Amino acid sequence: MENNNKKNEKELTLTDVIEAIKGVENRLDKKIDDVEGKLSKKIDSSVEELAIMVQKSLLNTEENIKEEIKSEKVNNKAEFNKRVYIFNHKDLEFRVEKLEEKIGMAHKK
User: Fold this and answer.
1) Under 8 Å between Cβ of 89 and 99
2) What is the spatial distance between Cα 47 and Cα 53, in angstroms, rounded to a whole number?
3) Which of these, 66, 45, 69, lies nearest to 53 by C-alpha position?
4) Rounded to 5 degrees, what are φ and ψ at 99?
5) 107, 97 in Cβ contact below 8 A?
6) What CA–CA distance (Å, rounded) separates 108 from 28?
7) What does the pLDDT look like over 31-49, one tens digit per residue?
8) Does residue 7 have a pLDDT over 70?
9) DSSP labels, 39-95
10) Is the overall model pTM greater than 0.70, yes or no?
């Protein structure tokens, strides 16, 4: 029986061990390449999604700034017109007072 077991057993040589290790190494290299490829695709996809989100955010920010500037222009124009009106009104009051003084009319306030 021992002879049958010995016949069924195969002697492993150093070359056999090296070949087995190389086979395992090749399979690991393929798996690593697959994982790196998948990771690279995932990173590229994530970067693209992030770029789209940043772009949308910047466009919204730009639109908000444009609206604020437009609103500020309207407010500034209204304030300017109000001040011009007040200045013109005060100037006219002053001129009327001077004319009234010159013609001798009493100024009523």
Assistant:
1) no
2) 10
3) 45
4) -65, -40
5) yes
6) 103
7) 999 999 999 999 999 999 9
8) no
9) HHHHHHHHHHHHHHHHHHHHHHHHHHHHHHHHHHHHHHHHHHHHHHHHHHHHHHHHH
10) no
